[in-house]
Amino acid sequence: MEHDDPVYRMTTRLNRIALVVFAIAALCLGPDAEGWRFAGLGSMAGLFVVPEFLRLSRREPPWWLLGPMVLIAPMVCAGVTGGVQSPFLVAYVPIAVITGYVLGKGSLPVVLGAALVIWGFLSLHVWWRPAGMIPAMLGAPLPTSGAVFWATAVTTFVIAGNRMARHVRDQLHAEQARLLGVRRSATEAMARGKADLVALSGAIAHELKNPLTAVLSLLSFRHGQAADGGDEREQLGVALAQLDRMRARLETLLDLARPADALTREVVALGPVIDEVLDAHGAMAAELGVRFAARRGDARAPVDRRKLSQVVANLVQNALQACADGGRVEVALSATADDAIVEVFDDGQGLPDGSVERLFRPGVTHRAGGYGIGLTVCRTIVEQHGGRLELARRDGGGSVARLSLPRVMQSAPPAEQAVEED
Question: Which of 161, 177, 174, 15 is nearest to 100 (CA)?
Answer without folding.
Answer: 161
